[in-house]
UniProtKB/TrEMBL annotation, chains A, B:
This is Citramalate synthase. Signal peptide: none annotated. It comes from Paenibacillus polymyxa (Bacillus polymyxa). Its EC number is 2.3.3.21. It holds the Pfam family HCS_D2.
Length: 538, 538
């Protein structure tokens, strides 16, 4: 049996059913391009019968000249009607897509309850619709909705549905676990059974993650004979999502030896996952398998000293295979080997026995004791390590700020910040408003600096987190603020700690700007090397 | 073979290895109590040999009188030493825990590379350490690190390790997929093999999610004979996390018929998952299987009309079984019965069809839509319900505040609040300093009111939490503040939401004082019933 697996991406169709996921036609085109670069075989773009956005997508995607087959999605014809007169089927034919996914019922309960028609009419709907699109010259993928629930309830009928679809000429029979409630051993048994009955069509699998088993179920189906896997990037999709292709693909390819993507393209997986999450405007979970930022991150001291000897001790694959990388998290649980290897990662040689190394390690320990946490604040850690090596040239110095928040009953709150900096020997005094006090400070800082450093205009804050450290002290407790910043090329994170939420935020904010300016050219009216009055040291 | 499965929770130990997860001793005690209410069988609390926080946990957890067995974690003795003289093993014995998890090597490669000792010495380390703790009267759970990788590399040695542990008297032999790289079919084969060789000890499974297969691997092991499952709430843990007990438990219990929790406790799963995520201050993914907010959410259209006919059409289980609920994203149907039963709890009869009931329900829905959450803010909910019944007599009204935060380089930050209230017809203008802006407001409010309401002197804030709601908007995002207040008799919680952290804190603060004054006598110079200008309505 062939080991070639067709990867069918439905991020643009089933993925957009996920809560909080919404893609414009432009977004869809960008993602389609990226998926094609990755080398997936099928890209399901949407439902041409449903809205103008999808019709636009199918028109414009043809101009991109992609390698992947573009797929249009729709249902079998309406009950008691004629396929050739079905508007949705006509739209699929007219979409310009090379292939069509047709979804039909295979669970007798659904035929009665949802379609409210007879089992016989449902078979005709399936046959007619597939035959119509095949006559139109399309490749047809039949998605048998609720196939596993259907098989468990009425195996004869579920098999009859598949045989009817095969008879109508479907190229692919895809078994859908629509409700996501089926277990891997059931998938294995049922796919094996179907495999023994079908001769012409190929089999595919489409799973959902309601039992946290979508990936396992996809593997199970492939091991039992399925040769197409439908899923989405990052597992986006309705309820708990679809099978996550970012896990399915490396599992099949690296662990089980199937051919999914060109092997030299697999290392674009991490990059693709990030890109799609950016376009969809959804945060990627740090702990996402294979492609998450923490997927190859090591925290414990013993683990770190072992991976420094041999990374296979605590890594199931080499992270580079999927385009990810090893990260060493610095935390109180770990020791000096973490800091040294972090420096190495930054291209700085730090002799563990040197004064610099001992200095920065004891500084980090002291800060961690005060409540700082560097595992989520790589840029703050990098600043500390580079400072220890005398590598940081301060581009400006802080003099003072005032923040004023005013609220009068029945009126909106007003937040203002007044900020004094010294940039290149010149005193800069700025004021700005904001949605809140931290936003006002952010605005003032950007305003003050971007006249000297135009590149800062491309930088923006992407994430802001507040954690109260010792909650028992309530409003007098210390807070830790984490800020994530971005520009076109990079993402970096900084931390600040104080009993005062404004001061903690300011500290993280200031360091995020300092980090952004690490490689900046010195501004013109430079008169002297400036000293940075870090808030960390007050 | 018995269908009873021991649920071993390691949220407090392995869970804290996850990036961004950090728990104080207090947090750990709260979570232990909650896990015990859920009915897990083992609660692994930490590493008594590693730090004072964990030693404190083991001391204080004994005072809670939990049903679950408390477990202390540690490694086998150091190489070339004596178990009885091993400080970490002594600390485990002294911890007061009933059971110990001992982790040992079963992969020959790790014995050479990480431990840097002989295969023979590793066997002795395992034997000695287990025997030492058994002699000390503890139940011993042997966690065989990298068992599956070890078995694949050198099956004889991996088996020798397990036999040695059994011989030393280990009650449980737990097979760990430490790197998370093993597939379900491999788990099945290897567990079956071990099961055939072991007679006295029982088998357990401990998996990691690096291939997005931790849940599937746990099921596979149980189906092959394992009778203990180790995992964490919400799957927290190193890299991609541990097996998620919130998915493992319902899969085993509802789908495969194993006995895990008392069946009447399974519906606390959703609530437990939320609680742990709140204490850990980590957002729960909406699409988390079984317990996520979107796990049973249905977007408009065909799915909704089908589930209104019969929810089995698109739901693999009844959501109530795990304490979750169906959500229809277009038309909000839930909530009303909750509010009515909450009112009942407060001794207020609320006729669901009355204008008051409809009013308060639509108000709560509107506030929830804005980001309020009343699950952790009972006092705010009570104020809303009592307001709807016209039961709240406002003791003071808010006029205005100004908050000023000033920072000059090299000097400590200064926070001041200026507050104007009207109490009993008299304008009260106060100023106060604080550690931070919210503390200054808290001090000003207490100062202004306690001259009229001396009972407020006994009240203090016990807990303060900040949650950024839409992190992508960074410093312009909405924040939700939760404040817990206390006096000698009572504990209550309030919520505030705003784009401005000061305003959100103020709102929660103000309501916590309003709640404290619900039963207070009207102050002496009362002239007229006062109106409260709630910040909620601005």
């Amino acid at each position: 049996m062939s080991t070639a697996i067709s990867i069918f991406d439905t991020t643009l169709r089933d993925g957009t059913q996920g809560e909080g996921i919404s893609l414009s036609a432009d977004d869809k085109l960008k993602i389609a391009k990226k998926l094609d670069d990755l080398g997936v075989h099928y890209i399901e773009g949407g439902i041409p019968g449903s809205n103008s956005k999808d019709i636009e997508f199918f028109k414009r995607v043809q101009e991109l000249g992609l390698q992947a087959k573009i797929v249009a999605f729709g249902s079998t014809r309406r009950k008691d009607s004629i396929a050739a007169q079905d508007v949705n089927l006509q739209r699929i034919l007219e979409s310009g897509a090379q292939a069509a996914t047709l979804v039909g019922k295979s669970w007798d309960f659904h035929v009665h309850t949802a379609l409210q028609t007879t089992l016989e009419e449902n078979l005709s709907m399936i046959y007619d619709s597939i035959a119509f699109l095949k006559q139109g010259g399309m490749e047809v993928i039949f998605d048998a909705e609720h196939f596993f629930d259907g098989y468990k309830n009425n195996p004869e009928y579920a098999m009859a549905v598949m045989k009817k679809a095969e008879e109508a000429g479907a190229d692919w029979l895809v078994m859908c676990d629509t409700n996501g409630g089926t277990l891997p051993h059931e998938i294995r048994e049922i796919v094996t059974m179907l495999q023994s009955q079908i001769t012409r069509s190929q089999l595919g699998i489409h799973t959902h993650n309601d039992c946290e088993l979508a990936v396992a179920n996809s593997l199970s189906a492939v091991q039992a004979g399925a040769r197409q896997v439908q899923g989405t990037i990052n597992g986006y999709g309705e309820r708990c999502g679809n099978a996550n292709l970012c896990s399915v693909i490396p599992n099949l390819q690296l662990k089980l030896g199937y051919d999914c993507l060109d092997i030299e393209k697999l290392n674009q997986l991490h990059n693709t996952a990030r890109f799609v999450s950016e376009v969809a405007n959804v945060n990627m979970p740090v702990n996402q398998p294979y492609v998450g930022n923490a997927a190859f991150a090591h925290k414990g001291g013993i683990h770190v000293s072992a991976i420094l000897r041999d990374s296979r001790t605590y890594e199931h694959i080499a992270p580079e295979l999927v385009g990810n990388k090893q990260r060493v998290l610095v935390s109180e649980l770990a020791g000096q080997s973490n800091v040294v290897s972090k420096a190495q990662e930054l291209g700085i040689t730090l002799d563990p026995s040197s004064d610099e190394a001992r200095g920065v390690i004891s500084r980090i320990k002291e800060l961690e004791h005060q409540g700082y946490q560097f595992e989520g604040a790589d840029a703050s850690l990098e600043l500390l390590i580079r400072e220890a090596g005398g590598e940081v040239k301060e581009m400006f110095s802080f003099e003072s700020f005032k923040v004023l928040v005013e609220k009068t009953a029945g009126r909106p709150v007003v937040s203002e910040a007044f900020l004094k900096l010294n940039v290149a020997g010149t005193s800069v005094y700025t004021a700005a408003e904001g949605n809140g006090p931290v936003n006002a400070l952010d605005n003032a800082l950007r305003k003050a600096l971007s006249q000297y450093f135009p590149a800062l205009r491309d930088m923006h804050l992407a994430d802001y987190k507040v954690r109260v450290l010792d909650e028992k002290d309530a409003t007098a407790a210390k807070v830790r603020v984490l800020i994530e910043s971005k520009n076109y090329e990079d993402v970096w994170s900084n931390v600040g700690v104080s009993e005062n939420v404004i001061e903690a935020s300011w500290e993280a904010l200031l360091d995020s700007f300092r980090y952004a300016l690490l490689e900046a050219p010195t501004p013109k009216n430079d008169q002297a090397e400036l000293t940075h009055h870090g808030l960390v040291n007050h």
